[in-house]
Structure formats: structure tokens, C-alpha cells
Design goal:
Blueprint: E1 3-11, H1 16-29, E2 33-40, E3 48-56, E4 69-74, E5 87-96, E6 109-113, H2 115-121, H3 128-140, H4 145-155, H5 158-181
Parallel strand pairs: 1-4, 4-5, 5-6
Antiparallel strand pairs: 1-3, 2-3
Length: about 180
């Protein structure tokens, strides 16, 4: 069975569950099957939070929980250690350069990117999640960019739509810079 595993990891309130919801909807539009699980501390903001995805090209995943991550997005320093040992060798880790100063150890491709800094320039740090999501899609070619955009347009509250589309475009621009530099 072919597929891949993704984890969005950070602090509560950073929109990690929304990232998984949007990406799973985009992947479903493209015919993939997605199992999502989540974990978070019992605080509404600031506690450790994660959203995991097991994606399959060939029907339901044999096991719905992550065992060897292909992609990891880390938006807060507190979330770095939680995923150690779960990222497969050669996996891709995207890290918020401003909020994460401790790097995971292992044989991974690690890219520090200005997710929260870019979001602050847009006027709202809370869209760092959408920036990170679209950067992941852009670098990893996880789904078509147009599919993610359609999903953001239908899955985002109207009052935040323009900001989220702008955040998505910024994430793709960061991804394009990373790919060009590689």
C-alpha cells in the first residue's frame, strides 16, 4: 500500500487541527483516503497539540495511527521532542524559525522557515498555520496547489478568507524559495 504520514505539531491555539482538516479535505478531493488523529493537553491555548494524518492512495490505511512520519511541521519549541523517533530517515521537517530554536536530531531534511514572522507581517500571527500548510504542500508536492486553494476557499469562515488566501500565497512563495535554493 502506498501512502505517507504527516504530523502538524505545536501549541494549542495555533490551528493545527484546522491544518489537518483542510489538507485531508484537499487530499480527499484528489481521491486519497485519510485517517486523522489528534492529541492535545487539556488547556485551551498554549498546551502541546498535534494533528496526525495517515494518507493512503489505495483505500483505507492498514493502521490509522502514525508510525513513521514522512512530514513533520513544528510550530512551537515545546513540540520538538514529542516527535523524536517517529520521523523516518530522510523525512522532511519544517520548523518555524522564530518559535523553535531546538532542532530535532536525526537523519532528516530540516528546513527552518519564517512562518510566524511572515504571519505577523500579514497582521495576524494566527495564520502561521496556513503559511506552514501551504509551504508543506509546495515543497512536498502533497497535493495540487489549486486543490488546497479550493479547500481553503470552502473551509474557511468568510471573514478570514482573504487573510487565509494571502497566507496561502505567502506559504507557496516560501516553498518556491526553498525549492529554488535546493
Amino acid at each position: 500500500m502506498s501512502g505517507f504520514e504527516i504530523r502538524f505539531s505545536g501549541a494549542g491555539g495555533q490551528g493545527l487541527q484546522l491544518c489537518a482538516k483542510l489538507l485531508s479535505a484537499a487530499l480527499a478531493r484528489e481521491g486519497k483516503t485519510v485517517a486523522i488523529s489528534q492529541g492535545y493537553e487539556p488547556t485551551s491555548r498554549g498546551g502541546l497539540s498535534r494533528a496526525d494524518m495517515v494518507v493512503s492512495d489505495e483505500g483505507a490505511a492498514e493502521y490509522p495511527l502514525v508510525t513513521a512520519l514522512d512530514y513533520l511541521v513544528v510550530l512551537d519549541r515545546a513540540a520538538v521532542g514529542v516527535s523524536e523517533g517517529l520521523v523516518r530517515e530522510g523525512g522532511l521537517i519544517l520548523i518555524d524559525a522564530r518559535r523553535v530554536d531546538k532542532m530535532p536530531r536525526g537523519k532528516y531534511e530540516i528546513r527552518q522557515m519564517p512562518f510566524s514572522e511572515t504571519a505577523m507581517r500579514l497582521g495576524n500571527e494566527r495564520v502561521a498555520n496556513v503559511i506552514a500548510l501551504s509551504a508543506l504542500v509546495g515543497i512536498g508536492n502533497i497535493c495540487a496547489r489549486e486543490t488546497l486553494e479550493q479547500t481553503i476557499r470552502t473551509g474557511t469562515p468568510p471573514k478570514f478568507l482573504d487573510l487565509n488566501i494571502e497566507a496561502m500565497q505567502q506559504g507557496y512563495a516560501l516553498a518556491d524559495e526553498q525549492v529554488a535554493a535546493a
